[in-house]
Amino acid sequence: MSIIERAAELLGSLPQGRRKSSVPENSPGSGEGSWIERAAAEVDPRLRSGSPQANPARRPTGTHEHARSGDRAGRTLAIDRSRLRQQSLIAPDGERTVIGESFRRIKRQILANVAKPNAGPPANLVLVTSALPGEGKTFCAINLAISIALEVDRTALLVDGDVAKPDVARLLGLDAQGGLMEVLRDRSVDVADVLCKTDIGRLTILPAGAAHKRSTELMASDAMRDLLQDLAGRYPDRIIIFDSPPLLAASETGVLASQMGQIVIVVEAGKTSETALKSALQHVDAGKVSGLLLNKGQGASLEYGYDGYG
Q1: Is the backbone of residue 134 left (phi > 0), alpha (psi -120 to 50) or beta?
Q2: N or C end of the chain: smaller count of CB under 10 Å?
Q3: CA distance 106 to 113
Q4: Which CATH architecture describes the domain 3-10+29-54+67-298?
């Protein structure tokens, strides 16, 4: 029996009255925790609550300049480190933080899976999603991408695939003039022309681009499949982090998940219901789920929980 099956059994065995926590997001823990925290801890006792997600209400600003990006013309974005810290995002060259250390551990499982032989889609295609909106998947995708970009021998490409709510550009202060939608709509647009290189390690951003009335169909199209294959194979050291729409809010996410080598599902502590999580897992191949990432835990000093399925 796989660890996912054991986790599902544990989730299903919890009494109905204990499956949600009434403790506010930013208050100290109640000692008992949410149903997902307790279930995850039974699967792996190292799992605990995560640090609270910062409120990204204010838009950070960045400094943009045109520059050469590798062997193609591109844009370089100098990201304000103080803005990153204000939003609890990982700030390179800053002090060691609980969030930074937590995502270091999370990325180790991701990178270990990339090194394993894989007969399916490339393991360097990593989908970050959630069951429902508002669980913090974009926050986690950005932190994971930044952490990977700080590796000595890896590069990270963060793709904003949540076209209906493209928060990656907003949180990083990116004034994007084109992106994923333009590449999918027009085969003559080279993806290299809309990539934005940043001054954070080896981090590159592919913005969502302009919204389109057929964006759902485009995300599930052959053009998307071809683009993913190109991105995964163009550079052997690249990890592609794909911030996708929530599984239960957008039909195209299930199609995207089938083309990914790894899937990380973000779970909001004290809020995500057992029913929602089980429904979300039914939309993906359980063998590709590399972990459940517990976000918005109780208490700023606690770590992010990560139930990694090796």
Answers
A1: left
A2: N
A3: 11
A4: 3-Layer(aba) Sandwich (3.40)
> Per the confidence metrics, is the pTM higher than 0.85?
no
Of 102, 97, 75, 73, the C-alpha closest to 86 is: 97
Closest alpha carbon to 141 in 66, 56, 72: 56
Question: Using CA atoms in the order 262, 268, 270, 273, what is the torsion angle rounded to 10 degrees?
Answer: -60
**Which contacts (CB < 8 Å, 24+ apart) does range 56-63 have?**
56/87, 56/139, 56/167, 56/170, 56/171, 58/86, 59/170, 59/173, 60/84, 60/86, 60/87, 60/171, 60/172, 60/173, 61/173, 62/172, 62/173, 62/174, 62/175
pLDDT in tens, 146-204: 999 999 999 999 999 999 899 998 899 888 778 999 999 998 999 998 999 999 989 99
